[in-house]
Amino acid sequence: MRITLDGIQVECDAKTVGDLLMDHPDGTVAIVNGRHMTSDDALREGDSVHLLHGDGTFRGQLSAPLLSERYTEPVFDRISNARVGIAGLGGMGSHVAIALARSGVGHLVVVDFDRVDQTNLNRQNYSIHDVGKPKSEATARILASVSPGTDVVHHDVMITRDNVHDLFSGCDVVCEAFDDPACKSMLVEELLSSDPDVVIVSCSGMAGFGSPNGIRTIRPMSRLYVCGDGETDASTGAGLVASRVMVCAGHVAHTAIRVILGETEQ
């Protein structure tokens, strides 16, 4: 039968994954049609197989083929060709960025003027090795380590009315992840009024220890989505907790993906 092995079509006599691994002794794990398979699993005509080799690497770029096989090609094409901006890279934006990269978004624009400090580590997607580095630079490095095929443009600047249009020019979706309500309003007003195609995914209310079921996504305007509970701000006794922040970040990232795919209803 004919299969695609590490991106190349080949004739194969193997009946099972185990047979194939025996024929390729440098392979230790087989990913078939985007999923990890055991030695007893049968191979079928047209299967796409990628082998994990003894040095822990795959031959060629793996992430794109795997996602294409899992999503179907039309869906993957839309996601991989999309351009998404992330305004602010703190507890919300840093997790949104990693979720979008892992989901296969092909082009990300990440912007923040701040630097990582130790007080960020309880809820933001950074490590002790990032302390002192610009958040935009640290985010770009993290994204490259988990999704090397993602095109990442990073800017170490404060977002203002004067530069917001240039920073996010060409983006299909912009995820707003600021702490300051005035900055949130500025970004939404400027982008919605100047770009008739861009969609904004904003956030409001994710602090405290309340039930994560209170976090939801609403669509107050045709090109504006807001994720959160709409109420809880960070304050004494109701600070930002990583688990709840990440739930809201998941809403933001997933809403961006749904917008890319044309799934606009909530």
Report on the structure:
- The protein is α/β, with parallel strands linked by helices.
- It has two domains: 2-60, Beta-grasp domain (Ubiquitin-like (UB roll), Roll); 74-260, 3-Layer(aba) Sandwich (Rossmann fold), CATH 3.40.50.720.
- It has eight helices and twelve strands.
- The protein has helices at 17-23, 63-71, 73-80, 93-102, 135-146, 164-167, 181-194, 242-260, and strands at residues 2-5, 8-11, 27-32, 35-37, 48-53, 83-87, 107-111, 151-155, 173-176, 199-203, 216-221, 224-228.
- A seven-stranded mixed β-sheet has the order 8-7-6-9-10-12-11, with helices on both faces. A five-stranded mixed β-sheet has the order 2-1-5-3-4.
- A hairpin with a 2-residue loop joins strand 1 (2-5) and strand 2 (8-11).
- Helix 4 runs parallel beside helix 5 (135-146).
- The protein is elongated and about 65 Å long.
- The mean pLDDT is 90.
Structural key phrases:
266 residues; alpha/beta; Ubiquitin-like (UB roll); Rossmann fold; five-stranded mixed sheet; 8 helices; 31% helix; 22% strand
